[in-house]
Structures are given as structure tokens and as C-alpha cells.
Design goal:
Length: 488
């Protein structure tokens, strides 16, 4: 089982695989480096980005995330309001403070290599970090061109998960959770999950909670669920208060704050009260707010990725604001059920846009939210799995084609659409008896197969679909390109 601690991570925008993961890789590299050598012996750092990380890394702030990580900032604790201040010495004075302790010269033009045409074997999102030492006698794993170096290659496999090259070569290691042991209620697919719940007379949330408590105290798990829910609410709130234009050059206007003002004003109007689709407008708002924050490099919860970070919070806010039975423990249950669904998808297919397209990101989040909401509505385990299946089935084939490599268009609006779809899926399933023609396991397998068949153009490379659509003014992959595009 993949833990709620793995699947829902507090991180920064705009991308879990291209921003959070690379920052985690930089943190991991720094720790490994410090365990081997005195940081003072490091003279230079080089960064090599491969495949999708290089193709859309500029738009996803991969380079700056790595630099912040090398400074010692972590995705869950960094104060994103000051990211530019932290980066200023690097770009203005070419000074990188390794772990905040040792200053080295760093020239982003010279020291970052963008290999968009090279895809490493294990995963399209790969990066190599290399420290070059002043003293050739210092520790060296490899010696290149007479310089002592220490280097590591990492794969950012989606949702902020990162593994190093050694683990990628070791089939014994579960990339999602290398330390997994014997949990009380293991399951590898939806059928096994259903059986475990039936055999032990547990709901999905009870089962997941019991598994989580195998590793941590229930207080720790509850505290983490509280943290996630708090960050989701803060993110919606911040998104509703912030107007302006998103960074990156597409000049995409933030819409959530204006929509929030409109909807708040309309609350007292009788015509709004008669509008039966008011809830849908608020769901749109919640999703837009989160994804605009994400696109702006703000603090979000990967759910299960950053690009799809708005769907689960939007459906949870719908539960909070439109369901009188709302309780915080209900929100916890929601997140635990979503964890079970997300872990099924991650284990048996993928949650990475670079691997299977957007069906793995927005599709997975839609499925997770649908299953979780069905549970909140009072659905049986079979109904929850049916809802999750509907949520993924109607996102099969969804491509990843962000314009200019930015997580803005179509990503932001796509989250609003998927949040509404998730609610519909939950309600459809709740009206049924849990029986369905296509099982969740089959839908997940289909997603995997569809991803394998999908052209690489549609897997987070910004080389196909909307990313290169009709208007030639929009650059394709956004490597180093400042877009001057008046309206988008
Ligand atoms: S299109 Fe989907 S998978 Fe691709 S960056 Fe946007 S949200 Fe992520």
C-alpha cells in the first residue's frame, strides 16, 4: 500500500514531477554529498536534465526548484513568498549557497544542461547532479577529465516520488515505498481491496487507517490528515484573494478572485438561490483557485500531482460547503479513501503525465475524488470502487499537452471540469448497486495500456496537441523562451 504520506505531499507549484520531485532530488543529493565530503571542498555544481524534464523544465520551474533544493529548501517547508529572494543571489551574482553553508560560483547558463533529446532508460523524467571538487584528492565516485566528482542520477516518477539510479536497477525495491513491510490488510488491486473490506467488515477508510497505523501512531496520521486539509483550505483561500497574471509569458489572467467576488455578491440574490447549479460554480472556483496558486509557484498539496492538485480540494470543499453532514473526521475519511484509489492506480498504472499523459494526473485525481465522495455519500465499498472506475473511465486517453510547457492551459480549467465530473461519477455510482460492466482494475489496466500506446508528443513534452495548436505565435517546448503573448 502506498501511504497517505506518500500520495499527498505538501509541496510547491507548478508540478509534482517537474518541480517538487527535482527539489526532493536536490535535497537527497545534498544529504548524500554531505555524508561523503566536507561541503567546503565543493567548487562547482552541474545539473543535467533529460527527457521531459528538459523539454518542459523551464515552464515547470525545474531549474529553480533544483537550485532552491541545493540551497537546502524543502518543498513542504519553503515559504514560497520569498522564492525569488532566495534565487536572486544566483541569478544576480552567480552565487549559490550550498545547504546555506558554502558559497560557490554558479552560472545557470554554463552549469545547467538541457538534454531534451536524451531519454534515460528508466523514466522520461531524469536528472543528474554533479559536484566537482576543488581538491582532486577529495572523495570521488567518478573521475571525469581529471576532476574529482560526486554524481547521482535521479528519476522523478510523478507525484513528487523520486528514486535514485541504484533503486531503479533493483527490482526488489518498491519505488513508491522502499521501506514497505507487512501491513495488516494488503491489497494489490481493487478486487483484493473489496475482498479485504468484505472479509474484515471494514470500510475503505477504516482499512487504510489500519494500514497507516502499522507504521505510525493514529495521532500522527490524524495530524498529517489535518495538515493536508489545512493546506488545501489555505490554498483555496489564497487563490480566491489573488488577482493578476500568471508567470511564464502566456499572460493568463487569474480568474478565481473575480469569480469569488461575483459568487459572494450573488449569495444574497434570490435568483442565485433559485439557481440549482450554484454549487457547480463554487466547485469551479475552488479548483481554479488551487490551480492558479499552483501555476504561480504557491504552496499546494500534490493530490496526487500538482497539475491535478485542484480536483480533490474542490470536491472536499464541496463536501464542506454543500453537505450539512460535513465533519473534519469525514474529511479525513475522504482523504483515506482517495489514498486507496490513488495507490491502486499508482501501483498498477501511473500517476505521471510524462508516462501516460493527463489521464494519469487529472484522470487519477478524478477517480480518487469520485471514490472518496461516494464513501462520504454513504456508498458501499462496491459503490466507491464503481465511482472511482467511472472517474477514470471517462478520462481515458486524456493527453498531456500544456501550452508552452506551462501548467496553465489546459491544466487549470481541466481541474474544474474533472472536479464536477468526479461528483457526477460519485452520484451515478451511489444510485447504482455497485455492479458495473468495467471493473476498476480493468479501467486502470486500460489506462496503462493507453498510456503505452500514446505518442510521446502527448506526454508532457509540449510537442503535440494544444501545446502546438494552430497559433504559431505560441512557442512549442518552452526551453528558455520568454513568451510575449497578449491574450490567452
Ligand atoms: S495537461 Fe494534465 S498532465 Fe499535463 S501538465 Fe497539465 S495537468 Fe499535468
Amino acid at each position: 500500500m502506498i501511504s497517505v504520506f506518500d500520495l499527498f505531499k505538501i509541496g510547491i507549484g507548478p508540478s509534482s514531477s517537474h518541480t517538487v520531485g527535482p527539489m526532493v532530488a536536490a535535497n537527497t543529493f545534498l544529504a548524500a554529498l554531505q555524508s561523503q565530503v566536507d561541503l567546503a571542498s565543493v567548487q562547482q555544481i552541474e545539473v543535467e536534465l533529460f527527457g521531459s524534464l528538459a523539454a518542459t523544465g523551464k515552464g515547470h520551474a525545474t531549474d529553480t526548484a533544483i537550485l532552491l533544493g541545493l540551497q537546502g529548501h524543502k518543498p513542504n517547508t519553503i515559504d514560497t513568498r520569498y522564492s525569488e529572494d532566495y534565487l536572486a543571489p544566483i541569478y544576480n551574482e552567480q552565487l549559490l549557497s550550498l545547504a546555506g553553508q558554502h558559497n560557490i560560483q554558479f552560472d545557470a547558463e554554463r552549469d545547467i544542461f538541457w538534454h531534451s533529446d536524451i531519454v534515460l532508460p528508466y523514466h522520461p523524467n531524469a536528472l543528474t547532479l554533479r559536484a566537482i571538487f576543488a581538491d582532486p584528492a577529495a572523495n570521488s565516485d567518478h573521475t571525469t577529465q581529471h576532476r574529482a566528482t560526486f554524481q547521482q542520477t535521479y528519476y522523478s516518477i510523478g507525484g513528487g516520488f523520486v528514486i535514485n539510479e541504484a533503486d531503479a536497477d533493483n527490482p526488489e525495491v518498491d519505488p513508491a515505498n522502499p521501506s514497505i513491510g507487512a501491513i495488516p490488510y494488503p491489497f494489490n488491486n481493487a478486487e483484493e481491496l473489496l475482498k479485504q473490506c468484505q472479509t474484515h467488515n471494514l470500510s475503505i477508510s477504516e482499512l487504510v487507517m489500519a494500514n497507516e497505523c502499522h507504521y505510525r501512531s493514529s495521532e500522527e496520521v490524524v495530524a498529517y490528515l489535518d495538515d493536508i486539509w489545512a493546506v488545501m483550505q489555505a490554498c483555496v483561500s489564497q487563490g480566491c484573494q489573488t488577482a493578476g497574471v500568471l508567470p511564464g509569458g502566456l499572460n493568463v489572467k487569474r480568474r478565481a478572485s473575480a469569480l469569488y467576488q461575483q459568487l459572494t455578491l450573488e449569495l444574497d440574490r434570490p435568483e442565485a438561490k433559485n439557481d440549482r447549479l450554484q454549487a457547480m460554480e463554487w466547485i469551479n472556483l475552488y479548483a481554479l483557485a488551487v490551480n492558479e496558486e499552483n501555476a504561480n509557484g504557491g504552496k499546494v498539496v500534490t493530490a496526487p500531482t500538482n497539475g491535478a492538485a485542484g480536483i480533490i480540494p474542490a470536491v472536499l470543499h464541496y463536501y464542506r460547503d454543500f453537505d450539512e453532514s460535513f465533519s473534519v473526521s469525514g474529511a479525513h475519511d475522504f482523504l483515506l479513501v482517495a489514498t486507496a484509489i490513488g495507490s491502486l492506480i499508482k501501483q498498477n498504472a501511473s500517476i505521471s503525465g510524462a508516462e501516460v499523459g493527463c489521464q494519469g494526473e487529472v484522470g487519477s485525481a478524478c477517480s480518487m475524488a469520485a471514490g472518496a465522495l461516494a464513501h462520504i455519500l454513504g456508498g458501499s465499498v462496491a459503490q466507491c470502487l464503481n465511482a472511482a472506475e467511472i472517474g477514470i473511465e471517462h478520462n481515458l486517453g486524456l493527453t498531456c499537452d500544456p501550452i508552452a510547457g506551462l501548467v496553465q492551459v489546459p491544466c487549470i480549467e481541466r481541474n474544474a471540469m474533472a472536479a464536477v465530473k468526479a461528483i457526477n461519477a460519485a452520484r451515478l455510482a451511489y444510485r447504482g448497486n455497485g455492479e458495473h460492466c468495467v471493473s476498476l482494475d480493468k479501467a486502470i489496466q486500460t489506462m496503462k495500456q493507453t498510456g503505452e500506446d500514446m505518442s510521446d508528443k502527448y506526454k508532457e513534452t509540449a510537442r503535440g496537441g494544444l501545446a502546438v495548436y494552430a497559433d504559431s505565435r505560441i512557442p512549442t517546448a518552452s526551453i528558455g523562451v520568454t513568451v510575449n503573448y497578449s491574450q490567452c
